[in-house]
Fold:
Amino acid sequence: MKRRLGRTAGFLIVTLAIGLSGCSPKSNLSGKPLASLTAFYPGGKGAIWAADEEGRLLRSTDKGKHFFKVMPKGLVSVSVSSLFALNAKQAWIVDQAGKVYRTMNGGRNWKKSNEFLIAPNRDDMNLVFSDVLHGWLRNGSSLYRSEDGGMTWTLINPDLPAGYALNFTSPMIGWQSRFDGIYKTEDGGRQWKSVKKTRADSLVEQALFFDEKNGMLLRFAPDMNQQLAFTSDGGITWTPLSSVPTARMEGCHSTLSFSVAADDHLIAYYQESGRLIEAYYTHDQGRSWRTLPLSSNKEWGTPIVLKDGPLLLLDRKEEGVEVKSFALSRNNGEWETYRPIVVD
Structure:
């Protein structure tokens, strides 16, 4: 079953930002080179949501070539930990006072929530929606829920244990990975139960579910090597992915990560000392993988896959951000390189 994944923050590089126009930018638009990004995220076909180091919200509809600026009226900057986009049009943000803002048209207009002051914990905040109505906001150990698109919120769990980002696949079914295993809720977040405990010599690093049965897991195996696995029974049993080599930990040099593209698409990649050295792509929830071509003479950044296929690798140069795009639909395609422009 396919669905648009409600993204999690945490180590899934899926922090979001809000965009401006739903129209594709024209080639004659002028602006300044994009100097930096603290977040980069696919929001729909051809659409990218992003945030820069100044706290500005940006959105592109042409695969990162042009970005438009947009902020809810009265806001100067935003924290990347308090952003979430459901798709190319619908997104939410939490301001410094704990108010939630919602856009339904790609950032052209924003609506502010009713009184909801939570003294945001910027170091431990997670905002996620499963659909346009049902959302959750974790602020420290407090978990809030909305059933009207973020306009009103109710505290449903005042003592949620620390863990990685929340992952809701429906209004009632949600997941959270913690160091000691994977936890599931079936009542919208009020109560959580363990579905998979880790062994004493293992460690869960991240879990992501596509639906109630199918999911991916990144874990440290008993030998402390990183390993990807998938489940088709709701997290009870996990099968290692032999098509993605195990990352052997040698100090802090070789690390394995994965990031969500859209629906069933993911990227798994290895980094050494922050440099990308290998990348794999899957379009079927991790059952089969394709090795992506990386030129050995290039400094690659973090890989992102858009819903319509191209791989984007972000690389920050002294003169600004550089994007490299590769069409995954072509077996022998060539890389396209361009520098994003922030439209005036």
User: Anything to note?
Assistant: Residues 1-26, 248-253 have pLDDT under 50 and may be disordered. Residues 4 and 263 are 5 Å apart (CA to CA). DSSP finds no helices and 30 strands in the chain. The longest strand covers residues 275-282.
